Amino acid sequence: MSLKDKLQDDLKTAMRNKDDVRKATLRYTLAELKNAEIAKRGELDDAEMQTLLRTLVKRRQETIDELEKAERAEMLAEEKAQLDVLETYLPQMMGREQVMEVTRGVIDSLGQPGPQQFGQVMKTVMAELKGKADGKLVSEVVRDLLK
Question: pTM, whole model, 2 decimals?
Fold first, then answer.
């Protein structure tokens, strides 16, 4: 079952269960998928859908940060609920320890580079961890290990 089919099935279930947050989130997500397919002029594969979902999650996180600054508690709770729904469709991201392990391996293979090779290390690590780890976390780990 493709990710799109799963989203559509979950939307039907949310409608039956009268789960308004899940229903609204899935409708929005499916609309974004449809827009991306129109822009591409073809079907998206699961990897492209995962990328789109990550973009939607990132938007929600940025919105949550802004709402926290603006102290808008009523909107904040709704955004967090929608973020939780979206995150259920993404694969589990790697933790700090796992990222450190991979980064140490890359640093060792590059021959103990210094802070000036940050870009080279980041490029290699991100290529290896694409879609498996958050870029901010990878950047922090690389910076810490290259000190």
Answer: 0.72
